[in-house]
Amino acid sequence: MHVLGINALFHDPAAALLTDGRIVAAAEEERFSRRKHGKRPVPFSAWELPEQSARWCLEQAGLTPSDLDAVAYSYDPALARPADEMGLHDPWDHLRQQYARQAPDFLAEALPGLDPAKVRFVPHHVAHAASAGPVSPYPDCAVLVLDGRGECGSHLAGRYTNRELTVLGTQRLPDSLGLFYEDLTQHLGFLRSSDEFKVMALASYGTPRFAGRLREYVHAADDGGFRARPVPWAELVPPRPAGGAWNQDHADLAASAQLCLEEAMLGIARWLRERTGEEALTMAGGVALNCVANTRLWRESGFRHVWVQPAAGDAGTALGAAAHVAGQKDTLEPMPTAALGRGWSDAELRAWLERAAVPYEEPSDIAETAAQTLAADGIVAWFQGRSEYGPRALGHRSLLAHPGRAENLERLNAVKGREEFRPVAPMVLAERAGEIFDGPLPSPHMLFVHGVAADWKARIPAVVHVDGTARIQTVDRAQEPLVARMIEGFERRTGLPVVVNTSLNTAGRPMVDDPRDALECFGSAPVDLLVLGPFAIRRGKAFA
């Protein structure tokens, strides 16, 4: 059975393909269109479909639209209600719902040969849930979905038994933890539905002195849900103009909101643990990308295991919608990796370099070449294999650097054009992580924060955030042998089994996806070495 999943309505349009219950491909439209998040989450853009990523998914499997058994669309307009009835101020939301109702015809136009009758609407939060529970390593698990909004709610709590969903609780709008955090993001001068991770980073610089006031608006409820109503933010702290300087009040407000979010999530998770008795909690929805809150749930919720979908935001609902439909006939296989996007053969990469007329080398061991540059304090752009599905660079489209030099944090933020308070992440071999980091292990998708052992903080200062934590990525040498060799080569030269890993892009642009993107990024940013598959391109030679 071939099922194509589509996310299109709100933001982060994406496509995913399952064949006989196995994930074949998944990619976000932004990687093709080069528009961050694919589009803005406004009703006027709801008609835009992930046409390029959908076509690529079919090409990857050698299929045509007529070969599909179903197309799963991650929103069900039959469940939606007028915005004002849901307590939302969104006067054009009726456009969004109208576009959703017409999605089968739009998809048939975008994918010639598709029968519109094959399009199936999947409730938004069911799609989120199916992107987590049934494709996680745990066929029996609790599932928690938290985001801004779906058709008429903002939350789903349930359990999967043998990969079958039972819904135990939902939260109706206007209460929404996702919208609460989005509103704060906008108040602090960042781009809502995009920059919430910046608020999480800024929170580490503050103290939660406004938490008491915020709890009047945001808190867990006894029924397993929560209350999250609009906050009069300006009564607490004046808004920060976009691009303006942040001050301690802004950091304290971020810290207060972060604390209230964690408390509400913890209350929901404990209720879910008590109701299900499950040992494993799986999570999806944009709020599940809050790695600080995720770690608190791991420590305090009572669940032994916490697994978060790597593409937890709306992009992941393409995978979840397809999994929900496919699972009704096929046995679903666990998600094998986040590297589900485009990749190129060595011959194809060489052809790109020849066309670009870029001087390049083909060393005997590209991992050792990269390790040597890193040990000499060079910055390496690392392009290997298939691109990642989701917002994290996990060793396929990464910028790498030396963690032992504190100035490399500022240096990388300058290379990428990012705010100075943004942290960068450590990449470490899975078997070494426990020596250095305290937190949930393994952590292959960079979705938790870990305490850094006291005797290591001074040794790897570039990756230690102001609060003494690090958002780590553990590397399984069986899955990522080339990355493992690069880290081992770096350790032989420096004594440090950790490498800085951040996404290969510059501010405001999607992560690099194809070789042209990599060459353009290398040409515009002060990177010392571009590793493109087995090939090495050195800045000194390329721009001599």
TrEMBL record:
Its EC number is 2.1.3.12. The keyword Transferase applies. It comes from Streptomyces cyanogenus. Pfam families: Carbam_trans_C, Carbam_trans_N. The keyword Transferase applies. This is Decarbamoylnovobiocin carbamoyltransferase. Residues 2-73, 117-322 form the Carbamoyltransferase domain. Signal peptide: none annotated. The lineage of its organism: Bacteria, Bacillati, Actinomycetota, Actinomycetes, Kitasatosporales. GO terms for molecular function: transferase activity. InterPro entries: ATPase_NBD, Carbam_trans_C, Carbam_trans_C_sf, Carbtransf_dom, DHBP_synth_RibB-like_a/b_dom, NodU/CmcH_Carbamoyltrnsfr. Belongs to the NodU/CmcH family. Keywords: Transferase. It is an enzyme of class 2 (transferase). Residues 371-539 form the Carbamoyltransferase C-terminal domain.
